[in-house]
Specification:
With 309 residues, this protein is an alpha/beta fold. The chain has 13 helices and seven strands. The protein has a seven-stranded mixed beta sheet with strand order 3-2-1-4-5-7-6, sandwiched between helices. Strand 1, helix 2 and strand 2 form a beta-alpha-beta unit. The longest helix has 16 residues. The chain is globular, with a radius of gyration of 20 Å. The structure holds S-adenosylmethionine (SAM). The site of S-adenosylmethionine has 20 residues, from helix 2 and strand 2.
Protein backbone atom coordinates (compact mmCIF):
# COMPACT_ATOMS: atom_id res chain seq x y z
CA UNK A 1 0.00 0.00 0.00
CA UNK A 2 1.15 3.53 -0.81
CA UNK A 3 2.60 5.16 2.32
CA UNK A 4 0.32 8.17 1.74
CA UNK A 5 -2.66 6.04 2.58
CA UNK A 6 -1.37 4.87 5.94
CA UNK A 7 -3.64 6.14 8.72
CA UNK A 8 -2.06 8.56 11.22
CA UNK A 9 -1.59 7.47 14.87
CA UNK A 10 -3.76 4.46 14.11
CA UNK A 11 -2.56 2.16 16.92
CA UNK A 12 -3.01 4.91 19.50
CA UNK A 13 -6.46 5.86 18.16
CA UNK A 14 -7.67 2.26 18.24
CA UNK A 15 -6.28 1.66 21.74
CA UNK A 16 -8.07 4.75 23.08
CA UNK A 17 -11.36 3.82 21.42
CA UNK A 18 -11.09 0.41 23.12
CA UNK A 19 -13.21 -1.47 20.53
CA UNK A 20 -12.45 -4.85 22.17
CA UNK A 21 -15.43 -4.00 24.40
CA UNK A 22 -17.56 -4.55 21.26
CA UNK A 23 -20.42 -2.26 20.29
CA UNK A 24 -20.94 0.42 17.69
CA UNK A 25 -18.32 2.97 16.65
CA UNK A 26 -18.58 6.00 14.39
CA UNK A 27 -15.74 7.04 12.14
CA UNK A 28 -16.88 10.58 11.33
CA UNK A 29 -14.17 10.99 8.66
CA UNK A 30 -13.91 7.53 7.17
CA UNK A 31 -11.90 8.83 4.19
CA UNK A 32 -10.02 5.94 2.61
CA UNK A 33 -10.99 3.62 5.44
CA UNK A 34 -7.57 3.27 7.04
CA UNK A 35 -8.54 3.89 10.66
CA UNK A 36 -11.82 2.06 10.18
CA UNK A 37 -10.02 -1.05 8.89
CA UNK A 38 -7.57 -0.94 11.80
CA UNK A 39 -10.43 -0.72 14.32
CA UNK A 40 -12.49 -3.50 12.75
CA UNK A 41 -9.47 -5.77 12.41
CA UNK A 42 -8.56 -5.23 16.07
CA UNK A 43 -11.99 -6.10 17.45
CA UNK A 44 -14.19 -8.79 15.85
CA UNK A 45 -17.17 -7.81 18.03
CA UNK A 46 -17.15 -4.15 16.98
CA UNK A 47 -19.34 -2.61 14.28
CA UNK A 48 -18.75 0.69 12.56
CA UNK A 49 -20.66 3.48 10.85
CA UNK A 50 -18.37 5.44 8.54
CA UNK A 51 -19.29 8.98 7.53
CA UNK A 52 -17.68 11.22 4.92
CA UNK A 53 -18.84 14.28 3.02
CA UNK A 54 -16.81 13.19 -0.02
CA UNK A 55 -18.62 10.63 -2.22
CA UNK A 56 -15.32 9.72 -3.90
CA UNK A 57 -13.80 8.81 -0.52
CA UNK A 58 -16.84 6.69 0.33
CA UNK A 59 -16.33 4.67 -2.85
CA UNK A 60 -12.71 3.96 -1.90
CA UNK A 61 -13.69 3.16 1.70
CA UNK A 62 -16.39 0.76 0.48
CA UNK A 63 -13.78 -1.24 -1.42
CA UNK A 64 -11.27 -1.29 1.40
CA UNK A 65 -13.82 -2.20 4.07
CA UNK A 66 -15.69 -4.81 2.00
CA UNK A 67 -13.94 -7.70 3.81
CA UNK A 68 -15.71 -6.64 7.03
CA UNK A 69 -19.12 -7.23 5.40
CA UNK A 70 -22.14 -6.46 7.55
CA UNK A 71 -20.05 -4.98 10.32
CA UNK A 72 -19.66 -1.73 8.34
CA UNK A 73 -22.13 0.83 7.07
CA UNK A 74 -21.12 3.90 5.11
CA UNK A 75 -23.16 7.09 5.10
CA UNK A 76 -22.66 10.29 3.11
CA UNK A 77 -22.90 13.45 5.18
CA UNK A 78 -21.19 16.18 7.16
CA UNK A 79 -20.07 15.50 10.71
CA UNK A 80 -21.32 18.95 11.70
CA UNK A 81 -24.75 17.35 11.28
CA UNK A 82 -23.85 14.20 13.16
CA UNK A 83 -27.20 13.96 14.92
CA UNK A 84 -29.17 14.18 11.69
CA UNK A 85 -26.83 11.78 9.90
CA UNK A 86 -27.02 9.16 12.67
CA UNK A 87 -30.76 9.62 13.21
CA UNK A 88 -31.23 9.13 9.46
CA UNK A 89 -29.25 5.89 9.66
CA UNK A 90 -31.31 4.68 12.64
CA UNK A 91 -28.33 4.86 15.02
CA UNK A 92 -28.82 5.78 18.69
CA UNK A 93 -26.07 5.95 21.31
CA UNK A 94 -22.61 4.75 20.33
CA UNK A 95 -19.50 3.39 22.04
CA UNK A 96 -16.97 5.61 20.35
CA UNK A 97 -16.50 8.42 17.84
CA UNK A 98 -13.33 9.01 15.86
CA UNK A 99 -12.53 12.08 13.76
CA UNK A 100 -9.33 12.36 11.72
CA UNK A 101 -9.63 15.91 10.47
CA UNK A 102 -8.45 17.65 7.34
CA UNK A 103 -8.10 16.47 3.78
CA UNK A 104 -7.38 12.94 2.61
CA UNK A 105 -4.42 12.03 0.43
CA UNK A 106 -6.95 11.19 -2.29
CA UNK A 107 -8.26 14.77 -2.22
CA UNK A 108 -4.74 16.23 -2.26
CA UNK A 109 -3.53 13.99 -5.06
CA UNK A 110 -6.37 14.62 -7.51
CA UNK A 111 -5.42 17.77 -9.41
CA UNK A 112 -9.04 18.37 -10.45
CA UNK A 113 -10.13 18.80 -6.81
CA UNK A 114 -7.97 21.92 -6.59
CA UNK A 115 -6.55 21.39 -3.07
CA UNK A 116 -2.85 21.37 -3.91
CA UNK A 117 -0.65 24.07 -5.35
CA UNK A 118 1.76 21.34 -6.41
CA UNK A 119 -0.68 20.25 -9.13
CA UNK A 120 -2.39 22.53 -11.61
CA UNK A 121 -6.14 22.25 -11.26
CA UNK A 122 -9.29 24.35 -11.07
CA UNK A 123 -9.69 26.34 -7.83
CA UNK A 124 -12.32 24.12 -6.28
CA UNK A 125 -11.30 22.75 -2.80
CA UNK A 126 -14.79 21.48 -1.93
CA UNK A 127 -14.58 18.26 0.05
CA UNK A 128 -18.18 17.52 -0.88
CA UNK A 129 -21.61 18.68 0.09
CA UNK A 130 -21.85 21.96 -1.86
CA UNK A 131 -20.84 25.43 -0.80
CA UNK A 132 -18.82 28.00 -2.76
CA UNK A 133 -15.64 26.99 -4.57
CA UNK A 134 -12.27 28.55 -3.79
CA UNK A 135 -12.52 30.33 -7.17
CA UNK A 136 -15.80 31.96 -6.15
CA UNK A 137 -14.17 33.16 -2.95
CA UNK A 138 -10.92 34.57 -4.37
CA UNK A 139 -12.73 36.18 -7.30
CA UNK A 140 -15.83 37.33 -5.46
CA UNK A 141 -15.24 38.17 -1.78
CA UNK A 142 -14.54 41.78 -0.80
CA UNK A 143 -10.90 42.54 -0.03
CA UNK A 144 -11.57 42.93 3.72
CA UNK A 145 -13.11 39.46 3.93
CA UNK A 146 -10.20 37.90 2.07
CA UNK A 147 -7.80 39.58 4.47
CA UNK A 148 -9.74 38.34 7.50
CA UNK A 149 -9.86 34.75 6.19
CA UNK A 150 -6.15 34.74 5.43
CA UNK A 151 -5.32 36.13 8.87
CA UNK A 152 -7.76 34.05 10.94
CA UNK A 153 -7.67 30.72 9.13
CA UNK A 154 -4.15 30.85 7.74
CA UNK A 155 -2.49 32.83 10.54
CA UNK A 156 -0.88 34.53 7.53
CA UNK A 157 1.28 37.53 8.42
CA UNK A 158 1.00 38.98 4.93
CA UNK A 159 -2.81 38.74 4.84
CA UNK A 160 -3.31 42.36 3.87
CA UNK A 161 -0.74 42.29 1.11
CA UNK A 162 -2.08 39.05 -0.34
CA UNK A 163 -5.72 40.24 -0.20
CA UNK A 164 -4.71 43.41 -2.10
CA UNK A 165 -2.82 41.36 -4.70
CA UNK A 166 -5.80 39.03 -5.23
CA UNK A 167 -8.12 41.97 -5.85
CA UNK A 168 -5.65 43.56 -8.28
CA UNK A 169 -5.03 40.29 -10.13
CA UNK A 170 -8.73 39.44 -10.51
CA UNK A 171 -9.47 42.90 -11.90
CA UNK A 172 -7.30 41.94 -14.89
CA UNK A 173 -8.49 38.33 -15.20
CA UNK A 174 -10.25 35.91 -12.84
CA UNK A 175 -7.85 33.64 -10.94
CA UNK A 176 -8.74 30.22 -12.29
CA UNK A 177 -6.19 27.62 -11.20
CA UNK A 178 -4.20 26.52 -8.18
CA UNK A 179 -0.93 27.44 -9.90
CA UNK A 180 -2.19 30.92 -10.85
CA UNK A 181 -3.27 31.50 -7.26
CA UNK A 182 0.11 30.41 -5.91
CA UNK A 183 1.84 32.82 -8.29
CA UNK A 184 -0.24 35.77 -7.10
CA UNK A 185 0.52 34.83 -3.47
CA UNK A 186 4.24 34.48 -4.13
CA UNK A 187 4.40 37.84 -5.90
CA UNK A 188 2.54 39.48 -3.02
CA UNK A 189 4.81 38.02 -0.38
CA UNK A 190 7.89 39.03 -2.31
CA UNK A 191 11.10 38.87 -0.32
CA UNK A 192 9.25 37.88 2.85
CA UNK A 193 8.55 34.48 1.27
CA UNK A 194 12.18 33.37 1.51
CA UNK A 195 12.20 33.65 5.31
CA UNK A 196 9.72 30.84 5.81
CA UNK A 197 12.23 28.18 4.87
CA UNK A 198 11.09 24.74 3.79
CA UNK A 199 7.37 25.39 3.88
CA UNK A 200 5.95 26.71 0.60
CA UNK A 201 4.96 30.38 0.98
CA UNK A 202 1.48 29.59 -0.39
CA UNK A 203 0.73 26.94 2.26
CA UNK A 204 -1.01 29.19 4.78
CA UNK A 205 -3.17 30.94 2.20
CA UNK A 206 -4.27 27.62 0.72
CA UNK A 207 -5.12 26.31 4.19
CA UNK A 208 -7.16 29.45 4.88
CA UNK A 209 -9.18 29.11 1.70
CA UNK A 210 -9.82 25.42 2.27
CA UNK A 211 -11.12 26.13 5.77
CA UNK A 212 -13.46 28.84 4.45
CA UNK A 213 -14.72 26.73 1.52
CA UNK A 214 -15.58 23.79 3.77
CA UNK A 215 -16.44 25.77 6.93
CA UNK A 216 -14.08 23.42 8.71
CA UNK A 217 -13.88 25.13 12.10
CA UNK A 218 -17.64 25.55 12.42
CA UNK A 219 -18.06 21.90 11.45
CA UNK A 220 -15.56 20.84 14.13
CA UNK A 221 -17.28 22.87 16.88
CA UNK A 222 -20.60 21.29 16.00
CA UNK A 223 -19.08 17.82 15.88
CA UNK A 224 -17.56 18.12 19.36
CA UNK A 225 -20.86 19.07 20.93
CA UNK A 226 -22.95 16.40 19.18
CA UNK A 227 -20.41 13.56 19.40
CA UNK A 228 -20.14 13.78 23.18
CA UNK A 229 -23.92 13.64 23.63
CA UNK A 230 -24.13 10.56 21.40
CA UNK A 231 -21.74 8.54 23.54
CA UNK A 232 -22.90 5.90 25.94
CA UNK A 233 -21.38 5.85 29.42
CA UNK A 234 -17.67 4.99 29.06
CA UNK A 235 -17.91 5.78 25.31
CA UNK A 236 -14.77 7.26 23.80
CA UNK A 237 -14.10 10.31 21.66
CA UNK A 238 -10.82 10.49 19.72
CA UNK A 239 -9.91 13.47 17.54
CA UNK A 240 -6.79 13.87 15.40
CA UNK A 241 -6.11 17.42 14.26
CA UNK A 242 -3.47 18.87 11.95
CA UNK A 243 -3.09 22.55 12.81
CA UNK A 244 -3.31 24.75 15.85
CA UNK A 245 -6.72 26.25 15.03
CA UNK A 246 -8.30 22.79 15.06
CA UNK A 247 -6.36 21.59 18.08
CA UNK A 248 -7.41 24.66 20.06
CA UNK A 249 -11.09 23.93 19.39
CA UNK A 250 -10.68 20.28 20.41
CA UNK A 251 -8.74 21.18 23.55
CA UNK A 252 -11.20 23.84 24.72
CA UNK A 253 -14.28 21.78 23.91
CA UNK A 254 -12.92 18.85 25.93
CA UNK A 255 -11.96 21.12 28.81
CA UNK A 256 -15.39 22.74 28.83
CA UNK A 257 -17.22 19.39 28.76
CA UNK A 258 -14.92 17.99 31.45
CA UNK A 259 -15.39 20.88 33.85
CA UNK A 260 -19.11 21.20 33.32
CA UNK A 261 -21.23 24.30 33.84
CA UNK A 262 -20.57 26.39 36.90
CA UNK A 263 -23.39 26.79 39.44
CA UNK A 264 -23.90 30.56 39.72
CA UNK A 265 -24.74 30.25 43.44
CA UNK A 266 -21.97 28.00 44.75
CA UNK A 267 -19.39 28.74 42.04
CA UNK A 268 -18.80 24.97 41.76
CA UNK A 269 -19.26 22.82 38.63
CA UNK A 270 -22.66 21.12 38.34
CA UNK A 271 -21.77 17.42 38.55
CA UNK A 272 -24.37 16.33 36.00
CA UNK A 273 -22.85 18.61 33.38
CA UNK A 274 -19.38 17.13 33.79
CA UNK A 275 -19.72 14.87 30.80
CA UNK A 276 -16.17 13.81 30.09
CA UNK A 277 -12.90 12.68 31.50
CA UNK A 278 -9.89 13.56 29.35
CA UNK A 279 -7.68 10.55 28.57
CA UNK A 280 -4.78 12.53 27.09
CA UNK A 281 -3.40 15.19 29.43
CA UNK A 282 -1.12 16.25 26.61
CA UNK A 283 -1.95 15.54 22.98
CA UNK A 284 -0.28 12.43 21.53
CA UNK A 285 2.19 13.11 18.74
CA UNK A 286 3.52 10.69 16.13
CA UNK A 287 6.99 9.23 16.61
CA UNK A 288 9.89 10.22 14.35
CA UNK A 289 9.66 6.77 12.79
CA UNK A 290 5.99 7.31 11.86
CA UNK A 291 6.73 10.74 10.39
CA UNK A 292 9.50 9.22 8.30
CA UNK A 293 7.16 6.77 6.58
CA UNK A 294 4.16 9.10 6.59
CA UNK A 295 5.10 12.80 6.36
CA UNK A 296 1.40 13.78 6.57
CA UNK A 297 1.60 12.70 10.24
CA UNK A 298 4.10 15.49 10.97
CA UNK A 299 1.67 17.99 12.44
CA UNK A 300 -0.84 15.51 13.93
CA UNK A 301 -2.10 15.83 17.50
CA UNK A 302 -4.46 13.30 19.04
CA UNK A 303 -6.75 14.07 21.98
CA UNK A 304 -9.15 11.62 23.56
CA UNK A 305 -11.83 11.58 26.25
CA UNK A 306 -14.25 9.19 27.93
CA UNK A 307 -17.93 9.85 28.64
CA UNK A 308 -18.75 9.76 32.33
CA UNK A 309 -22.45 9.42 32.91
C1 LIG B 1 -7.68 12.84 6.85
S1 LIG B 1 -9.00 12.20 5.95
C2 LIG B 1 -9.43 10.76 6.82
C3 LIG B 1 -8.60 9.57 6.48
C4 LIG B 1 -9.05 8.29 7.18
N1 LIG B 1 -8.95 8.40 8.62
C5 LIG B 1 -8.27 7.09 6.70
O1 LIG B 1 -7.63 6.43 7.52
O2 LIG B 1 -8.30 6.79 5.50
C6 LIG B 1 -10.31 13.27 6.35
C7 LIG B 1 -11.62 12.91 5.68
O3 LIG B 1 -12.64 13.63 6.37
C8 LIG B 1 -13.58 14.10 5.45
N2 LIG B 1 -14.21 15.27 6.07
C9 LIG B 1 -13.63 16.44 6.36
N3 LIG B 1 -14.51 17.28 6.93
C10 LIG B 1 -15.68 16.59 7.01
C11 LIG B 1 -16.98 16.91 7.51
N4 LIG B 1 -17.24 18.10 8.03
N5 LIG B 1 -17.93 15.96 7.45
C12 LIG B 1 -17.66 14.73 6.93
N6 LIG B 1 -16.46 14.38 6.41
C13 LIG B 1 -15.48 15.31 6.46
C14 LIG B 1 -12.78 14.41 4.22
O4 LIG B 1 -13.62 14.37 3.08
C15 LIG B 1 -11.73 13.31 4.24
O5 LIG B 1 -12.11 12.22 3.45
Amino acid sequence: MDAHHVPVLAAQAVALLAPERGGLFVDATVGLGGHAAALLAAAPAARLVGIDRDPEALRVAAGRLAPFGERVRLVAGRFGELDAVLDGAGVGRVDGVLADLGVSSLQLERAERGFSFRREGPLDMRMGGGGPTAAEIVNGYPEADLERILREYGEERDARRIARALVEARAVKPIATTVELREVILRAKGRAAGREGRVDPATRAFQALRIEVNQELAELRRLMEQAVRRLREDGRLVVISYHSLEDRIVKWSLRHLERGEIDPVTGRPLAETQLLETLTRKPLRPSDAEILVNPRARSARLRAARRLG
